[in-house]
UniProtKB/TrEMBL annotation:
<protein>
    <submittedName>
        <fullName>CheW protein</fullName>
    </submittedName>
</protein>
<feature type="domain" description="CheW-like">
    <location>
        <begin position="10"/>
        <end position="148"/>
    </location>
</feature>
<dbReference type="InterPro" id="IPR036061">
    <property type="entry name" value="CheW-like_dom_sf"/>
</dbReference>
<dbReference type="GO" id="GO:0005829">
    <property type="term" value="C:cytosol"/>
</dbReference>
<dbReference type="Pfam" id="PF01584">
    <property type="entry name" value="CheW"/>
</dbReference>
<dbReference type="GO" id="GO:0006935">
    <property type="term" value="P:chemotaxis"/>
</dbReference>
<dbReference type="GO" id="GO:0007165">
    <property type="term" value="P:signal transduction"/>
</dbReference>
<dbReference type="InterPro" id="IPR039315">
    <property type="entry name" value="CheW"/>
</dbReference>
<dbReference type="InterPro" id="IPR002545">
    <property type="entry name" value="CheW-lke_dom"/>
</dbReference>
């Protein structure tokens, strides 16, 4: 007997702010959340790479998701969401610079609208919440962007 959407377990997500918007990520892909620190800029790195930082002996690449999702609003950039190396196929430790972290909460499958995000890379759906919408994003957008950049560079060669 197939499980119905109503029988599906809720997913724990981390809600965070980027500019004026609220976004979320599946908590299963997150290793930790740290305060934003000093970054070392890497010459000739892609625009979405802010730099690297030492995080307990690990060199961690810090990405600006605002660049990935083309978000123009400014914000305080106070926290870094560090992804679990075993869950993300980036070839190293990666974190996203976010403006602020709000909460961890459960999202039921019936609260996610995927019909508006069919063509949006890196967006899993829109979470309907009381009086607002939360955009559920995927950290895999980094992989998709890297693949696109690789295709462009190969075509130019």
């Amino acid at each position: 007997m197939a499980a119905t959407e109503a029988d599906a377990e809720p997913t724990k997500v981390l809600e965070f702010g980027l500019g004026d918007g609220t976004y979320c990520l599946d908590i299963g892909v997150i290793d930790e959340i740290v305060d934003a620190g000093e970054l070392t800029r890497i010459p000739n790195s892609p625009d979405h790479v802010e730099g690297v930082m030492d995080l307990r002996g690990r060199t961690t690449t810090i990405v600006d998701p605002k660049t990935l999702f083309e978000i123009d609003e400014e914000g305080p950039r106070e926290r870094i969401v560090v992804f679990d190396d075993s869950e993300i196929d980036e070839g190293g430790t990666v974190g996203w610079m976010v403006d602020e972290v709000f909460q961890v909460r459960d999202v039921a499958p019936e609260d996610v609208d995927q019909s508006t995000t069919v063509e949006d890379e890196g967006v899993r759906g829109i979470v309907k919440s009381d009086d607002r919408f939360v955009v559920w994003v995927s950290p895999d957008v980094d992989d998709e962007l890297a693949a696109e950049l690789g295709d462009v560079e190969a075509a130019e060669a």
